[in-house]
Amino acid sequence: MDGMVNSNFPPLMIELSEIFPPSNDVCFKPLQIEDNTVFIFYLKSAIDGAKLHDMLIKPFFEMKSNQSFTFYIESLPNLTNMQYGEELLIEITKGYVLLAINDAFYLIDIKLVNSMALQQTIIEPTVYGPQTALSEDIEKNLNIIRHRYHEPTLKFDTHALKGKSHKSVIIMYDEKTVKQSVLQNIIEKIENLDSPLIQSTGELQLHLNGSKFSLFPITILTERPDRISYNLAAGKVIIMLNGSPQAIIAPVVFFDFMVSMEDNYHTFWITTFTLILRYIGLFICFVLPAMYVAITSFTPDIPRTELALTVAGSRVGVPYPSFIEVIFMLMFMEFLTEASIRLPKAISATATTVGGLILGTAVTEATLASNIMIIIVSAVAITSFVIPISEMSFSIRICRYLLVIYTTLFGMIGLILGSLGLLMYLVNKRSFGVPYLKMYWQGDRKEIEVRSKG
User: Fold this and answer.
1) Fewer CB in a 10 Å sphere around the end CB: N or C, the chain?
2) Contacts of 296 by beta carbon, 8 Å cutoff, 6+ apart
3) What is the mean pLDDT of residues 260-286?
4) Which of the 8 DSSP states describes residue 21?
């Protein structure tokens, strides 16, 4: 610890020096020139040393009196309301400097942030539109949104998470368009969170989803500032966590997961065509494996005779029933997908491509699966990635296995009942009070119009 504690030091700083464990990281020192003396307390690892020198130390030695220095400090834009007790300890660990001038205390934000550089979009890439994503610094993210959304009704509410992280959470919304009941629901969920440690928006999203066994997400995790701006205009709420380069959008409906930001940069016909392709891909990804089981094992007379004969001929020599064949191939496709995510980028594409080719060739030559099954698995794998939001893609992939099980047990009737059961589940699902299968969400239009006129 720098400096020696004596009777001239403010009692609050002496108390703080006793609370923090003795360490070279704790800095507690006076600044003195002639008869002017001030005291500062901070953690070296949490603050920006250059900014501390330029903002506090250098101006102090250039001022003629403590009164002039006080006026200067009170004019700083990063001066924060003074906190006491446990809140003060948390603020100091975040990178705030405690300054004592005579009997007055000031808390100044001089935190060191090593992740302020803006990143390129990785999770939601587009050909057209902005290519810059959010950063891990929440202040930088707020600045990005301000530059994109020029509405005086845009509001930021700051909350602190409970537990050991004490991270700052920003709830962002447009007062003119947001639905108040939805906003209050989200605020209550954040204030009532009971988790010992939350480090990222992904973890926060998991807790906001309600039940941890929920199959479908009720929020969207995004890294794109343009998606955030569009959703703010639509009356939705944005949640940002300090230290995480993604934001949470709530509430959302099922159809929000099928929309790419690229749709806003194309003409009507191109956008419509790509949307139709996505929904066709969604149908293929979800239904095709179960339909293969239903046709080959239960109702081969449904397709045309030529197609039925082709399917039967391709399965000659396959020793297992069709549902084992389907599960076997789908699981290996999941293994390849997971490997492509976990492997280093330099080898992931090559390893998974070669693995897929070798696997497909070896399986068909060994007659462990039919050639048509290889085509189906490839089609399912490709269409899984057509869904723009990856969280929905994972949910559909899980539902695909449930539908295969239903079809294995009950045939084509199981396929129909399983699909209807999923539809009933989605119809009864809510995202912060909003029906999950609502065709279009933009708050409450009548409420928005009344507030806009008022």
Assistant:
1) C
2) 311, 312, 315, 322
3) 91
4) P
